[in-house]
C-alpha cells in the first residue's frame, strides 16, 4: 500500500513584489511629470514664437543670462540694444552674415545635416562638444530661449525650436529677429547697437568692409571687441567681402 505524504507548499514570495510596486508607481509618476513638463515647455516655445511672428521681442534668454552674470560678477556693463526694421539694415551686413555663417540660409530647412555630422565627428575627436554646426536659424533658437551650455540635450532642444521657427516664420522674419538679437560684444546686441558701438554709424549705413568685419566677429564677439586689430579678423573679413556678392537674401527670392 502506497502512502502519500502531504506537505504544505511554501507561500509565494509576495513581499518583494509588493515592495516593487510602489517603486514602479513612483517611476511611472515621475516619468509622467517629466513628459508633461517637457510638453508644456514645447507649447510655451511654440506660442511664444507664434506671438513673435507679429510682435518684436524686447529681449532674449541670452541677454537675460548675460545681465545676470554681469550682476553676479559685479560688473557694471551698459547694455546696448535697439530694434530696427529689417528694411533699414544694410544689405551689406545681411550678405556678409549669410556668407560667413550660413551660405544656404535661404534654401535650407533651418539645419544642415552635413554640418551636423561634421560637428559630430569633430566632437568625437576632441572628446567633448566643441562644435555644433549651427545655421542662422539654430543660432536664433539658442539666443531666444536657451543657454550657452554645450550639451547634446540642449542641442536637441535647439533643433526642436529651430523646426518651430521654420514652420511659423518666413526666412525674412527669422533673419530680422537674428539681426536684432545676436551678440556683437560685451553688452552689445543687434545690428544697430553694433554699428554705433564699432563705427559710430547706423545699421543702414554699414559699408562692405564694416559689414564683413562684423560678420567675422559673430562666433567670438567679446574676444574681437577686445582685439579689434586682430590679423585674423582683417584677413577673414577680406575673404567674406569677396563672397558677399554670391550671398542670397530672403528678399531676393
TrEMBL record:
User: Where in the numbering of this chain does the Glycosyl transferase family domain appear?
Assistant: 80-244
Which InterPro entries does UniProt cross-reference here? Glyco_trans_51, Lysozyme-like_dom_sf, PBP_transglycosylase, Pep_trsgly
The record's annotation in Gene3D superfamilies points to: Biosynthetic peptidoglycan transglycosylase-like
Instruction: Please tell me where this protein is predominantly located.
Output: membrane
Origin, by domain of life? Answer: Bacteria
Q: Where in the cell is it found?
A: Cell inner membrane
The answer to whether UniProt assigns keyword Transferase to this entry is yes
Family from the record: Belongs to the glycosyltransferase 51 family.
Q: What is this protein called?
A: Biosynthetic peptidoglycan transglycosylase
